[in-house]
Every structure is written in structure tokens, then in C-alpha cells.
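// run 5 | inverse folding | seed 20
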């Protein structure tokens, strides 16, 4: 089972490295990790997807909470959440395939962000399933390069993983 964890951490050098090392030392496999600054520049949000049973999830959560730089850890997979990933895909094109690639891109509501005579760079966002379906369709045209982010996610509704400020 996949678990999506959101960790609020202090935004300072070395924090991500310590967290990744924790996973490595314990033998936990990270499927994806995405980190970025929150609305508070002193805090970063790390979204980690890890595969395992509830025992693995409990162990990971306990270990993360022991780290000094970790402020809060939430299991987003246990509740209602919304998440998205991003992929940039450079696809080979020629006169015959350009129209078909653009048509498929429109159906998937992607953005073409770069055009050259021999390639397109396409930005696709969405669920893992949507991104993988788009990638699978693009393979027959020839994928020259590809980069993907990990999942980023937020709890739906009033539930939040942010820290309420005093005052």
C-alpha cells in the first residue's frame, strides 16, 4: 500500500539530507519526494510517498518525529486529500506527427511550453495515472527526454498540516 506523508520541516541546509538518510538507514524505499518552501519562508513542506504496510508507516512516522528539524508529520493517505505531479516531456516531432501530438496534448489538457522543428516540450500535470497514460501515448513518437516531480498533496477541506501561529 502507498502512503503519502507530509512533513513540515525547518527550512535550513541539511534537513532534507538527514531525512533521506533516515529512510535509507532504516531500509525504507521512497517512491517519490518533493520539497518546497511553504507560505512561511522558515518552513518547508516535504511530501513523501512510501510503500509498505501500516507497520512501516508507523515506524517511518515515529522516526521522522524524532528528528529535531521536523515540526509536524501527517499521513495524508488516511484521509481525503488532493495531489498532483508534474512531468516535462520532450517528444520528437516531424510534419506528419505534429498535429497528432498536439491533438493528444489538447485532450489531456497539457501545455506545450517549447517548440522546435524536431521536438516539442510538453508539460503535463495531474494524478500519477494521468501522467503515465500520457507518457505511454507519447512513447510511440519517441521521447527524447523526460523529468518528473514527485507527488505534492494537501488535505482537503478544513484539515491542514500547517502550524498555527500564536498571537
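// decoded
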Amino acid at each position: 500500500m502507498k502512503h503519502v506523508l507530509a512533513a513540515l520541516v525547518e527550512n535550513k541546509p541539511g534537513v532534507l539530507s538527514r531525512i533521506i538518510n533516515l529512510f535509507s538507514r532504516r531500509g525504507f524505499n521512497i517512491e517519490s519526494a518533493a520539497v518546497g518552501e511553504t507560505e512561511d519562508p522558515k518552513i518547508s513542506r516535504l511530501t513523501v510517498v512510501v510503500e509498505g504496510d501500516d507497520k512501516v508507516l508507523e515506524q517511518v512516522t515515529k522516526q521522522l518525529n524524532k528528528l529535531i528539524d521536523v515540526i509536524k508529520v501527517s499521513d495524508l493517505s488516511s484521509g481525503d486529500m488532493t495531489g498532483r505531479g508534474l512531468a516535462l516531456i520532450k517528444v520528437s516531432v516531424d510534419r506528419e506527427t505534429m498535429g497528432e501530438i498536439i491533438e493528444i496534448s489538447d485532450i489531456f489538457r497539457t501545455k506545450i511550453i517549447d517548440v522546435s522543428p524536431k521536438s516539442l516540450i510538453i508539460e503535463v500535470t495531474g494524478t500519477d495515472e494521468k501522467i503515465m497514460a500520457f507518457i505511454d501515448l507519447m512513447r510511440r513518437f519517441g521521447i527524447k527526454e523526460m523529468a518528473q516531480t514527485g507527488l505534492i498533496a494537501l488535505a482537503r477541506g478544513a484539515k491542514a498540516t500547517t502550524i498555527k501561529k500564536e498571537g
